Amino acid sequence: MSDRRLTPANGRVAAAHLRGQVAAERFVAGEAATLAAPVADLLAAPCGARDRQCLLGEAVTIYERRGGWAFVQAAKDGYVGYLAEAALGPPGAPTHRVAARATHLYPAPDMKTRERMSLSLGARVTVTGEAGRFAETPLGFVPRVHLAPLERPEADPVAVAERFLGAPYLWGGNSAFGIDCSGLVQAALAACGIACPGDTDMQESLGDAAQGPPRRGDLLFWKGHVALVRDAETLIHANAHHMAVTVEEIAAVTDRIAAAGEGPVTAHRRP
């Protein structure tokens, strides 16, 4: 059985490359688009539950527009779902990503002007010029210090994850405004140029099975949960216990999860 999260088909329409593999009324090549909102929920169905989120500048392929909703597949991880059609714009060519935990986009290169929007770490923008301490984009101005070129990935996923410390927990969240355990891992790895799927069960096949003591950058998995190892004793994770991104001792988290009836560590991976 195909995974609906990764299969661009909804019965009415399906991606052309799925012809002969799934049933659909129409098979289409799809239409390139880019997220034009700071952050948008990717839903399991129109007006349905949030599966994940997409950030400004991320590319998607639209397979159907219907009733104000777009049936899409995200380029970053292949996740399929529904986005509000109003949140989408034409395809773009981003040059930079937000490397700070969050930033603001202004109508002028002046921090005293009223911001147009807030952007999360991982959002993508197209820099067209510079104005003092600001980078100019088609949408406005962003502090240059908060941006990094897309072609220059970071080296340490844990250091990226630490920028989210204190960010509120949000089921299915992918931004500094709300994030869950798999969203944190994906954001940290993506900033380092490491492809990463969106959900914990998918992430459990990342990299190689690790042997021996955990080391920085490893992933530890429990039933429905994932965390990044900071060192031999501590980890960083977005968790519902604290409803935030926190650093904790590996032993304490393992004991707490076991006490809640969720069992032991299920996998130890090295991306």
UniProtKB/TrEMBL annotation:
Family affiliation: Belongs to the peptidase C40 family.
Keywords: Hydrolase, Protease, Thiol protease
GO biological process: proteolysis
Molecular function per GO: cysteine-type peptidase activity
Record domain NlpC/P60: where: 151-271
Protein name: NLP/P60 hydrolase
The species this protein was found in: Rhodosalinus sediminis
Taxonomy, superkingdom: Bacteria
